[in-house]
Write a structure and sequence with these properties.
It is a single chain. About 9% of the residues have low confidence. This protein is an alpha/beta fold and 219 residues long. The chain has two domains: 120 residues, Helix Hairpins (Orthogonal Bundle), CATH 1.10.287; 77 residues, Chitinase A, domain 3, CATH 3.10.50. Helices cover 39% and strands 18% of the residues.
Amino acid sequence: MHVENSRARRQLQALIGQQGTMNKAFTREDTPADEDDDTALASPLPPGARNYMTPGGHARLKRELDHLVSKERPELVATVAWAAGNGDRSENGDYIYGKKRLREIDRRIRFLVRRLDDAEVVDPAAPRDGDAESRVYFGATVTVANPEGNERTISIVGIDEIDTQRGYISWISPMARALLKAREGDTVTLRTPGGVEDLEVVSVRYGPLDTDVQVSSAS
């Protein structure tokens, strides 16, 4: 896992270097300061926490970063450069749209670099020692039941892998925190703004998760 992260960081450093050498004249000219503000990119993770994610989620983010840096951004820079030579820039729709899109891409690149640089890749399918196989940790797929006997199955994933349709929840969510280290037969108390609920852990299992795809919902 640590070897994989080291390799990823070396690749990211190379990508950052490529980004730094790109022509930024078009993205800086007449750009309001607030549009380049990275406040919105602040991580929801607790201070000092690693960004746990599955191999599939890591691959998906890395693939997007590679595409933006090596293909989409260079092509857009060339388009903006072409549009800049076509008369009054203030009335040039291609130029104005291109600049706006470049700012969006650059913000997304910075976001992905930060996420991947802090990544700690954990494979849900990897063997676990001792009683770790029967307890709830990152990557676990857990079935719980409320007092009425209604069951729900969730999988605990990274903050960029949330998918409500698949039941993938963030490891920092209230439910994931309530389930941490629980095992089959345990009862945990889930506290949310909507109230308090006792949940029985019906089953705990580990296996591959389908995180190498575009999530259907990040809510």
